[in-house]
Amino acid sequence: MRHMPTITEVMTAFPVHVEESTPLAEALDLMKEHQCHHLPVMGGKQVVGLLSGEDIKLAQSPGHEDQDFEELVAGDLCRRRFAKVDLHTRLDIVLTGMGEEGLNAVIVMKNEKLAGILTTHDACRFFSRWLKKEYLPDDDPGIA
User: Fold this and answer.
1) How confident is the model over 32-46, as pLDDT tens digits?
2) Element (H, E) at 39
3) Which DSSP helix (H) or strand (E) runs through 119?
């Protein structure tokens, strides 16, 4: 029987995160610096929200109700309703749930503490590696 990959093999462990009071411009700079699209938002030691690059882009768009982008902080725009899963949840269950709910990220918790984040980007990278391993010979010149 083959091994079911665990969420820990796919997720981004110890993700970059921000406090609720972090200015959006700073959050956007962190996303660029770390090449990520989602940031867990913390209120002390608790995850209180999830901020995405799309949320920030929307706030920067003309006609957005919050016109003064420079005054906004992560807590103003983060989604307060977000999916979180336990570190020991099977990967297939998490991915199925993400697909059914149309989620592009879930927060991964261990003992009520932030342990990681699993995004569609993480899943695609993992699946790509798996496909190459399963279906391409080791001597394939197309493998980088």
Assistant:
1) 999 999 999 999 999
2) strand 38-43
3) strand 113-119
Q: Give whole-number Cα distances, 111 to 46, 68, 87, 108, 123, in Å.
A: 11, 38, 9, 10, 23
Nearest one of 44, 119, 27 to 82, comparing CA atoms: 119
Instruction: Tell me the residue range of the domain where 97 lies.
Output: 7-135
Sign of the CA dihedral with 26 first, then 124, 91, and 95 last: positive
**Inside any domain, residue 144:** no
Number of independent structural domains in the chain: 1
98-140 pLDDT tens trace: 999 999 999 999 999 999 999 999 999 999 998 998 888 776 6
| 143 belongs to a structural domain | no
* Token output for 46: 């608790």
Q: CA torsion sign, 94 to 97 to 103 to 106?
A: negative
Report the distance separating Cα 57 and Cα 72, nearest Å. Answer: 13
Residue written as token pair 């989620």: 103
Burial annotation 57-67 (CB, 10 A radius, 16+ → b, else e): eebeeeeeeee
